[in-house]
């Protein structure tokens, strides 16, 4: 499905019923926006893995502007600010009240920015394998220098240098880095996932040369007052666990879970534990 909002067209998909029978009445389930990472990726990697949550919430997946199945446009429009405003416009387009927001990696950055501007429209905030400031880049460089293979170090050098110029090169980078992204890396499954995804390296390069070099939410994170769950992977190379710990420390009352057997791809490394943590959080945190 596509929504024509603001100056673009956003692809979205919905999983699970919103209104369900509950004895003699119909009960409305919460709606959870699943905010994908990147920039330059799409929502496809979340499909299937989040399905068990559809018993508790109605899931709304969407692709950021210029990414995945959403309309492409001028690269100057591929900004964090537009991602936030598109997300709010989609909420309004769908006629929703307060929503659960779950953002992973770059999606977590979008989610934090959204919470800082539209907190009144959020019931719960879930931040998975993400970071609150540009400092993640230098830390990731250090980790790759310590743990990476020579091909991985070269792939990252090209990435940070803005030398990836095609979507195929971006996909190749993700393939080379796969064993660092996931402790349970399976080349066959990774290839299948890459074939399903639609990448846009232009969106990555715009982000890398712009906001990712300077963004810093840390001074304002104490303003977030909605129930928040922060999840990190112990072996994450690009958003290491200290980044999750920092977010949880700064958001009042935030719950922190570090998954000991996970890297960046928590939903691939410890899928059931991730679902259990999110489901429990939604039930017990009000």
Q: Which topology does CATH recognise? A: Rossmann fold
Strand content is 15-25%
pLDDT < 50 runs, ≥5 residues: none
How helical, in percent, are the residues? 25-40%
Radius of gyration: 18 Å
How many helices? The count is 10
Report on the biggest sheet: 8 strands, mixed
Spatial strand order of the main sheet: 1-2-6-5-7-8-9-10
Structural class per helix/strand content?
alpha/beta
Query: What is the name of the CATH architecture?
Result: 3-Layer(aba) Sandwich
> What is the fourth-level CATH superfamily?
Alpha/Beta hydrolase fold, catalytic domain
Overall geometric form: globular
CATH level 1 name: Alpha Beta
Order of helices and strands: EEEEEEHEHEHHHHHEHEHH
Distance between the termini: 31 Å
Describe what this molecule looks like in 3D.
There is one protein chain. The strands form two sheets. An eight-stranded mixed sheet has the order 1-2-6-5-7-8-9-10, sandwiched between helices. It has a two-stranded antiparallel ribbon with strand order 3-4. The chain is built from ten helices and ten strands. The protein starts with a strand and ends with a helix. Helices cover 40% and strands 19% of the residues. The protein is α/β, with parallel strands linked by helices and 286 residues long. The mean pLDDT is 96. The longest helix has 15 residues, at 167-181. It has a single domain (2-133, 216-284), classed as 3-Layer(aba) Sandwich (Rossmann fold).
Features:
globular; 40% helix; 19% strand; single chain; eight-stranded mixed beta sheet; Rossmann fold; alpha/beta; 286 residues
């Amino acid at each position: 499905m596509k929504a024509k909002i603001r100056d673009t067209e956003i692809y979205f998909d919905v999983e699970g019923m919103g209104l369900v029978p509950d004895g003699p009445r119909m009960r409305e389930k919460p709606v959870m926006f699943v905010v994908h990472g990147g920039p330059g990726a799409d929502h496809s990697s979340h499909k299937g893995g989040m399905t068990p949550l559809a018993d508790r919430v109605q899931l709304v997946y969407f692709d950021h502007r210029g990414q995945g199945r959403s309309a492409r446009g001028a690269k100057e429009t591929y900004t964090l600010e537009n991602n936030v405003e598109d997300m709010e416009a989609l909420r309004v387009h769908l006629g929703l009240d307060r929503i659960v927001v779950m953002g992973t990696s770059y999606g977590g950055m979008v989610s934090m920015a959204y919470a800082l501007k539209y907190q009144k429209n959020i019931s719960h905030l879930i931040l998975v394998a993400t970071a609150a400031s540009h400092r993640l880049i230098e830390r990731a460089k250090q980790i790759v220098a310590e743990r990476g293979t020579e091909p991985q170090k070269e792939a990252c050098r090209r990435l940070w240098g803005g030398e990836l110029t095609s979507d195929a090169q971006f996909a190749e980078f993700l393939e080379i880095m796969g064993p660092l992204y996931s402790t349970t890396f399976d080349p066959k499954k990774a290839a299948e996932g890459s074939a399903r995804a639609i990448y846009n390296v232009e969106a990555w390069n715009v982000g890398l040369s712009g906001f990712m070099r300077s963004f810093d939410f840390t001074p304002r994170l104490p303003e977030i007052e909605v129930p928040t769950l922060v999840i990190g992977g112990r072996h994450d190379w690009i958003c290491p666990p200290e980044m999750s710990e920092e977010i949880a420390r700064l958001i009042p009352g935030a719950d922190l879970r570090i998954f000991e057997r996970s890297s960046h791809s928590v939903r691939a490394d410890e899928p059931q534990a991730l679902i259990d943590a999110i489901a429990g959080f939604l039930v017990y945190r009000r």
